[in-house]
Design brief:
The chain is α/β, with parallel strands linked by helices and about 400 residues long. The chain has helices at about 5-15, 35-50, 55-70, 85-100, 120-125, 145-155, 175-185, 235, 280-295, 300-320, 340-350, 370-385; strands at about 20-25, 80, 110, 130-135, 160-165, 190-195, 210-215, 230, 320-325, 335, 355, 355-360, 360-365. Helix content is about 40%, strand content about 15%. The strands form three sheets. The protein has a seven-stranded mixed beta sheet, sandwiched between helices. Strands 9-10-13-12 form a four-stranded antiparallel beta sheet, covered by helices on one side. Strands 1-11 form a two-stranded parallel sheet. The relative contact order is 0.17. Bound molecules: pyridoxal-5'-phosphate.
Length: about 400
């Protein structure tokens, strides 16, 4: 683990503009650090002045892939850049269709109830094409039922299992390797939506037995909208072709002098799954934001965030307010179910606290740039509006 002093030293420079704000809504979108904001501005200023060159494009993308690879303990050739999480998840649907075309006739896709819709619609759309989606009910607090999911995937009709590493409306942080062991033993495509985890919860998809992990950059990675990546287990890369093709995924197009020498020879790394031109200033900013997170260390960030959450968890316990967090499944997201959550939310907004309500709960999502003062402010408001 890296020392927390590095995080503290970065704050005035990268997050000076946050002073006075009480931003506790990273699960919706993260705050852009100064280095990424400046890189975007520089690219757009140079573009407006006709100073951008083609040399600006590819190195930015390469840097973003390298940063994403380090974040998930993967290799750079296993990373495809994407504009969001959804594009990465849909890639797994393409793998599934090709696997069936090769004769694998398992019909069932398993997911948990209460998943974010980005991790449900790609699978429901496959029902038109002969697959069946089975949504496993949650526990009484709306969190995935681990035992029921494990039992359901351990059967021979299951083709794909999709799970968020961290659930958006409960903060439930999945034990990814536990599901991965079953998926690997049964040859089930194991797909993880990691947008609510990447940057705040350590990820190691290869060790967890994951086949494809997708994340957008806009939340805990503190990167611009329009950025993200998919990590694809190496066995799948040369095995499957993209169903949505991008011209830059082919060998001949690497040389701009032979663009019209059409040839179906795909690149043999995950760039074959990237679909067309990507927003390179934003991808450079993604690289810079991930690099900053890696400088601090995700495990250090996780410890910081947990320490911030604790007083609010204690306050909820003392007041009999339901908290959806349990220690074994903690993440950056802390959800509380106070009486009249909407009223509490309105009062927090009125007091200048930015957080969210989702599915009837109050969602507070602090990151490395928050301090205990921010949490004190939340407790101060809740103390006032929630009867003891
Ligand atoms: C679990 C989860 N997946 C995906 C998304 C967003 O998907 P995308 O990046 O495709 O917009 C969100 C939130 O916006 C989310 O909470």
């Amino acid at each position: 683990m890296q020392p927390d002093t590095h995080r503290s030293a970065l704050m005035p420079h990268e997050y000076g503009a946050l002073a006075g704000a009480c931003y506790l809504n990273t699960a919706s979108s993260g705050v852009l650090p100064e280095r990424s904001r400046a890189a975007l501005e520089d690219a757009h200023r140079r573009r407006a002045a006709g100073r951008l060159t083609e040399q600006d494009f590819m190195p930015s993308l390469a840097r973003a892939r390298a940063a994403a690879a380090r974040l998930v303990g993967g290799a750079v050739d296993e990373i495809a850049l994407t504009p969001n999480t959804s594009v990465g998840l849909n890639l797994a649907a393409a793998f599934l269709l090709q696997r069936r075309a090769e004769g694998d006739d398992r019909p069932t896709i398993v997911a948990s109830d209460r998943e974010f819709p980005a991790n449900i619609y790609p699978w429901l759309e496959l029902e038109r094409l002969g697959f069946r989606v089975e949504i496993v009910p949650c526990d009484a607090l709306g969190r995935p039922d681990e035992a029921a999911l494990l039992e359901r995937i351990d059967r021979d009709d299951v083709a794909l299992f999709a799970l968020s590493a961290v659930q958006f409306a409960t903060g439930w942080n999945a034990d990814l390797p536990r599901f991965g062991a079953v998926c690997q033993r049964r040859g089930i495509l194991y797909v993880v939506d990691a947008i609510q985890a990447a940057g705040v919860v350590p990820l190691d998809p290869r060790a967890a037995g994951v086949d494809l992990l997708a994340a957008g950059g806009q939340k805990w990675l503190c990167a611009p909208w329009g950025t993200g990546f998919a990590w694809v287990r190496r066995d799948h890369i040369t095995r499957w072709r993209p169903l949505h093709t991008g011209w830059l995924g082919y060998a001949t197009t690497q040389n701009f002098a032979t663009l019209t020498s059409y040839d179906l020879d795909l690149l043999d790394d995950a760039r074959r799954f990237e679909v067309g031109s990507l927003p390179f200033p934003e991808m450079l900013a993604l690289a810079l934001s991930i690099e900053m997170i890696l400088e601090m260390g995700v495990d250090t960030i996780q410890v910081h965030v947990r320490a911030l959450q604790q007083p609010l968890i204690d306050w909820a316990a003392a007041r009999g307010v339901v908290s959806l967090l349990d220690d074994a499944h903690a993440s950056g997201i802390l959800c509380l179910r106070p009486p009249a959550a909407d009223h509490a939310f309105a009062e927090l907004q009125q007091a200048g606290v930015q957080c969210a309500t989702r599915e009837g709960v109050l969602r507070v999502s602090p990151h490395f740039y928050n301090s205990s003062d921010d949490i004190d402010r939340v407790i101060g408001v809740l103390d006032r509006v929630i009867p003891a």
